[in-house]
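Escalation from tier 1.

The customer reports that the assembly of two entities below gives different structure tokens on two consecutive runs. Tier 1 could not reproduce it. I'm attaching the input and our single run for tier 2 to review.
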Amino acid sequence: MSYQLPKFRHPELPVNDLGYTKADYEGAISTLCAGCGHDSISGAIVRACHELSIEPHKIAKLSGIGCSSKTPTYFLGKSHGFNSVHGRMPSVVTGAALANRDLLYMGVSGDGDTASIGMGQFAHIARRNLNMVYIVMNNGCYGLTKGQDSATADRGSASKKGDPNIYSAIDLCGTALQMGATFVARSFSGDKEQLVPLIKAAISHRGFALIDVISPCVTFNNNSKSTKSYEFVREHSEATGTIDFVPLHKEITTEYQPGHSHEVTMHDGSSIHLYKVDESLNPFDRRSAINAMEEHRYSGNILTGLIYMNLDSRDLHEVLETSHRPLNALDEADLCPGNKMLLNINASLR
Amino acid sequence: MKRIESVNDFVIKFANVNGTGSASANNLFAKALFRMGIPVSPKNIFPSNIQGLPTWYEVRVNDKGYLGRRGGIDIALSVNPQSMAQDIREVLPGGYFIYDSTKALDLRLHRDDISIIGLPLTRICNEQYEDPRQRLLFKNVIYVGALAALLDMDFKVLTGLVEDQFKGKKNLVLPNIHALELGHQYVRNNLDCPIGIRVKKSDKVGDKILLDGNTALGLGALYGGATVAAWYPITPSTSVVDAFEKYAKRTRIDPGTGRRNYAIVQAEDELAAIGMAIGASWNGARAFTATSGPGVSLMSEFLGLAYFAEIPTVLYNVQRAGPSTGMPTRTQQSDILSCAYASHGDTKQVLLFPSTPRECFDFGAMAFDLAERLQTPIILMTDLDLGMNDNMSEPLAWDDERKYDRGKVLSAEQLEAGVEFGRYLDVDGDAICYRTYPGTHPTKGAFFTRGTSRNEYAVYTEKGEEYEANMLRLLRKWDTINEYVPAPIVVDCGRATDTAVLYFGTSEESSREALDHLATEGVYLNAMRVRAFPFNREVQEFIQRHKQVFVIEQNRDAQLRTLLMAEFEFGPDKLKSVLCFDGTPISARNIRKQIKKHLDGDNVLPLHRNTALLRTGESR
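Tier 1 run:
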């Protein structure tokens, strides 16, 4: 059962360029377990959209089934939402995005929804490079059905039930890279300072942007032998670097020291400033990204931050050469060839 | 031996090897007759294979305009040694067997009760052509030329057709005409012609066209305003999207910018295909997918979502023989139940049953209006016979004044003016609620679409009474739907009778012919063609009015009959089945035989394992 948040807010909440407060980007109160990593991610989505001054109604939020897929109720209450079928959000969002290219598509999924039942659709949406943000709230287990291991659980990791997982884990970032995703990042629900700019960059990226966010399940998978617990992730994550996101219309106020940061201009004119920690990774080179991920996997650490971004990305609408006017705005005059053509077709069939 | 003698009334069956280009030559033959003003009905009977297996092409030629399969073969033309034994056996007594006599006919196959005509096709080809590919291709054209002489066809029509077919490709026109002449000349010089069966110019075709149902569906989607097509290749539906794409390329690309007013995505599977169609429809575009039985099975979960969340969706189902992979290149009407009640839980899906290419076009376009008006999936049920064969049809037509019915959608202005919005709130009693497209208004009209239960304002609920109220509203919506779907068509036999037949889709033509024939024997039956599910009240009254109704359908389990009994509670005694499920289109003779069997009183068959087989055995 979802409740509406209380309407009362501090009268001097900061407003963004559109005059909206953060509250305008919130949704109903969460019904997830207290301390669930997913709620932090919802909060990060709210903050990113507010700070970027995106009109809430110009966002469509879509999800599959599972704890993670419930979260669209808890953010962006003024946006249309679609809680679809288990593992099938990618196809629904593909259709939606084809119908109207002018909205921002925010897809939310979980590790069961994406890496198991939805693996096929996930692979194909990545290779089609649909223009969307795809956030996986990855906790390594099935929460709603009470804690079974998911396909992203590391081999040997044990959830509350106690038995170590016997299968190898699917790395969604690695899979996305292999499938042709043009923006791949990993983050941690407990690190908003990293996550919020990554979401902003993902929104600005034109193409398929995956953020695999490790998001501990406090009820079933936050114990000492789990590799998806708050403690383990904090101890084992290694960031690729940090990024600042600067929207197009914002003045750059921070002074960036030359040599330490790398400025990248996004499709929409905004820019990100990337401070690299790991000099061996070049996030604009797919091979380098794949190597870095493999090396971290070998050493047992979790690579977080921006892993790969293709600045020459051409999204599905570009590839299909669809009209710049949204397809859902076209009418009879645009679409129907009229009776005269039928007369010609009839004549050719006699 | 009494030869079959007829003018403009016969069945000819070509036996070929698939992948040898025979279909286009056989089509040339059928179309030439059509151009001579004679109604034709060609049916391609092909294997699930690209090259090397037997394939047949059956052409019904009939001046009275019967277009269904009649049953029985008057002329067999066999150029495939693999199937020759079967081909010669199938010829009716008094009929004609034409074969490639380069190799002498196996004496064991010989029959005294038919005329056997040899054409040394391979020899002629070997003498004329060096290139093996040409030898193969022109063999087919040569026998068409030979048939022209044997049947007394107008040779000029054939050559004219070749010229049209290869317009602008002069290097193809002359060799084809030459091949036609080779066959024609051989027969003229060596054989008695015409044979007992012949053709003559007629005027029974009028302004009709020869078109396959799948192309008509693709055009229907185009004219209906579809902008998103998502699909996964599957026989026999593939050519629907091919046709949509072909005509979209001609008409939907902006000449200035080169940008397309459509998007076609070949999905990774049928689940994704319908997911995309649903996502696009949810977002205000007209979208469709096309598939066949196995695809419907995969789409079922999504069909339940679209039913329950009330999202317009258009699905074209070109049925083939199931279950499982079944006979993928043979026809059946066997997805009736799996579509009518597609998905888990209590669902009812709207079905449309076209029976001609013209109806494929009309219903194909209408499906989008219905889907958006009724906010539910519309499943158009055609089949391989209608979809992949050239069917003689009324010409296609479109009213240029026609506007699309986009259904109940609130605009930004209406929302701004303060119209009360509840996504599942029935404000005017037709059980259809207003919806909004994403992005319409900054603060009003957003809602959450979900497959879980929710209240009238689209807020999640697990309260039993709210769930129940919503399910009952969906049932009331079913009554509204009934007012929108195409009504059945009644054919009154003009005599007092308490017996009738009821059929749908591609059983129409054979049923019509069977009834005409029965009438000549003094058996009069009224007829109804059902064109949609939900069944119109007229269907109920029609069945009530008659003591006995034969339900003619092309599946094993009498699925439409089951649906009629489920929806109207008619007892099994009232509805008798006339069935055909061998993968070929139901024939007029088969229908006649089954009905007579029932009427003669021997309809109570002993309980026996082979009862169904006995009942549906094809007549010769």
